[in-house]
Design a protein that fits this description.
single chain; alpha+beta
Length: about 220
């Protein structure tokens, strides 16, 4: 029902890939690989969402608008592409009806006895509260527990970030406890909640579960 297109020439399992769509009342959500030509849109969205993103993201060097100037996309894209080719990251753009509205990243992909990764995402403020982040996360979870072959996904969220916690719970993540002073965010060491999900906890497809719950529509 909800599939993916995977480039079989890639040296990294599951990347590049285009995932979806998931159909919502707000439109169709898909995930696609980041592209070099995304720079202008990335810069515009990141700058206009500063107030929404700054409280939750790791502390960076320099002013927000300078860190997210269009000229900064080229070196960032190079890092993302290199990490993806090495199989340790899957960087995606979230699209709503073909329009770039955010990003989702699977990072720190580990194989062997751990076989895990973390998931992170952000969505433009004009499209929050519409189920877009949950749909994107559902696609990512199904992909990670399918073609990518992972066993566990993790996410960390500040206790005050109720919206992001709701997204994770909606796609099946469990609260596993509090990490004290876990990450430097907005120039302070902040506590974070650790959320986890393993493949054994997913009954079929997370996207299909959204459909069954009435949060999405079958294609």
């Amino acid at each position: 029902m909800f599939g993916w297109l995977v480039d079989s020439s890639s040296t990294s399992p599951g990347w590049p890939a285009t995932l979806g769509p998931v159909r919502l009342p707000a439109g169709s959500v898909t995930l696609r690989p980041v592209r070099m030509r995304d720079g202008a849109t990335w810069s515009r969205l990141r700058i206009r969402n500063q107030n929404e993103l700054l409280p939750w993201e790791p502390t960076g060097t320099g002013q927000w608008d300078r860190r997210h100037h269009q000229s900064m996309w080229r070196p960032l894209f190079s890092v993302l592409k290199r990490e993806a080719k090495h199989g340790v990251m899957l960087p995606f753009v979230i699209e709503l009806d073909g329009k770039y509205v955010g990003q989702l990243t699977i990072g720190n992909v580990q194989r062997g006895a751990v076989c895990s990764a973390w998931i992170g995402y952000w969505v433009d403020k004009d499209h929050t509260g519409q189920g877009v982040a949950a749909a994107a996360a559902a696609l990512a979870v199904d992909h990670c527990f399918g073609p990518v072959g992972l066993h566990r996904l993790e996410a960390t969220v500040q206790p005050a970030n109720g919206a992001s916690q709701a997204v994770l719970r909606r796609v099946g993540f469990r609260d596993e406890g509090l990490l004290k002073r876990y990450m430097d965010v907005n120039s302070r060491w902040r506590d974070h909640l650790l959320f986890g999900l393993t493949v054994e906890e997913v009954d079929g497809s997370v996207v299909d579960a959204l459909v069954r719950a009435g949060r999405a529509t079958a294609s």
